[in-house]
Amino acid sequence: MNQIEEYYNSRDEEARLSSQHGQVEYLTTMKYIHECASCFSCPEILEIGAGTGRYSIALAKEGFSVTAVELVQHNLDVLKSKLDGSEPLKAIQGNALDLSAIKDRSFDLTLLLGPMYHLYTNEDKLQALSEAVRVTKPGGYILVAYCMNEPTIIQYVFLGKHLKDVMETKNMLSEDWHCKSDPEEIFDLVRTEDISFLNSHFPVERIKLAASDGAAHYFSGFIDEMDQETFAEWMEFHLATCERQDLIGASNHTLDILKVRR
To answer: What residues are paired with 45 via a beta bridge?
Structure first.
C-alpha cells in the first residue's frame, strides 16, 4: 500500500466536500461541468480519479452517462456501495497514467479532478494529461483540478507555524518559495505558470482558469458557521470573482477548463 492509498483509506474525503466551506469547491466545479456538458445533446462523461464518487454519482443521478475510474480500491468500494444499479454509471479501477483500457476519442467531457494533486514530476503530469487528451473527442472538454502553491505557504508554513520545519528540517522550499513536493508530502503544489507549461504540450485551448474555492479555506470556520442566506451570498460573491486572474494563485484549488482542438 502506497502513501496515497494510506491517506485516503484513513480520510473522509466525502466529508471535506460536504462541509459548507468544501461546498464552495464542489458547487463551483459542478457549475463548470454543467456549462461544458450543455454543449452536447447526450454527453459521455469520464471521471479519472473519481474518489468515492462525489461528482460521478451526482452526475449519473442527473441522467448523464458516466464512466468513473479510480486508483484506490477503498475509494472504489465506497463509490460502488452508493449505487443502486439504476444509475448510468460504470465504475472501474484504473490509473490516470495508463488508460489503455479506454479507446481513443471516447468521451465528450473528461474530468481530472484529483490525480494532478498526487503527481510529482512533469513527466507524470504530462502523461496524465496526454491520456486525458487521447480519450477525449475533438471539440470535447477536459477539466483539470490543481492544488496551488501560495495558499500552502500562507496557511501551512506561516499560519501553521511550520516555517522552521519546512526550511531547515525538510528543505521543502526553493529560493522563490515554491514548495518541493514528493510522495511523502502527499500533495503536489503548482503555480499558474506551471499549469500553462503543461498545457503547451498538447492540442488544447484554455477556455477558462477558475478559482475552485477562492478564499474559502482561509475562512473555513467562519464559512461553516454561516446561515444559509449568508452562505448563498458568499457563493454569489465567489462565483462573481472566481475567474479573476489576479486572484487565481491565492485559491487553494483551481480548475483549468480545456477544449481539445478539432
So the answer is: 66, 109
Q: Quick one: which of 11, 99, 87, 119 has its CA closest to 47?
A: 99
Helices (H) and strands (E) in the chain, counts: 11, 7
Q: Where are the domains of the chain?
A: 3-147+190-260, 149-187
* Residue 262, all three cell numbers: 478539432
Residue type at 115?
A: P
pTM value > 0.90: yes
Which of 44, 90, 92, 37 lies closest to 65 in space, CA to CA? Answer: 44
* Cβ-based neighbour number of residue 246 at 10 Å: 7
* Distance, C-alpha 26 to centroid of its chain: 10
Q: What is the 3-state secondary structure (H, E, C) of 88-121?
A: CEEEEECECCECCCCCCCCEEEEEECCHHHHCCC
**Residue 241 CA, distance from chain mean position:** 19
* Cα 172 to the center of its chain, rounded Å: 23
What's the pLDDT tens digit per position in 124-176?
999 999 999 999 999 999 999 999 999 999 999 999 999 988 888 777 888 89
Nearest to 94 by CA among 141, 55, 140, 128: 128
Tell me how many degrees the CA angle 208-24-131 measures, rounded to the nearest 5. Answer: 45
Q: Please give the distance of CA 143 from its chain centroid, rounded to a whole number.
A: 8
Average pLDDT in the 171-195 region?
A: 87
CATH code for the part of the protein at 3-147+190-260: 3.40.50.150
